[in-house]
């Protein structure tokens, strides 16, 4: 990609002042949001482990 092509892409996809502020740290998550996100990730991981265990059990012939 040439510099001219890159410049055209940037012109068409300019960020708004709000987006720049969010990227720069203006839209940080609260502590409660972080706790909720990590709790959700832990639950998703546990579900994945349970599912994998179930599949392995079925493949091994367990009922």
Proportion in helices: over 70%
SSE series: HHH
Strand content: under 5%
N-to-C span:
57 Å
Number of helices: 3
Mean pLDDT: 83
Number of strands: 0
Low-confidence spans: none
**Cα-atom Rg, whole angstroms?**
22 Å
What's the overall geometry?
A: elongated
Report the major sheet: none
Structural class: mainly alpha
Topology overview:
Blueprint: H1 3-12, H2 17-26, H3 31-59
Explain what the structure shows.
The chain is mainly α and 63 residues long. The longest helix has 29 residues. The protein has three helices and no strands. The chain is elongated and about 60 Å long. Helices cover 78% and strands 0% of the residues.
Features:
3 helices; mainly alpha; 63 residues
Short description:
The protein has three helices and no strands.
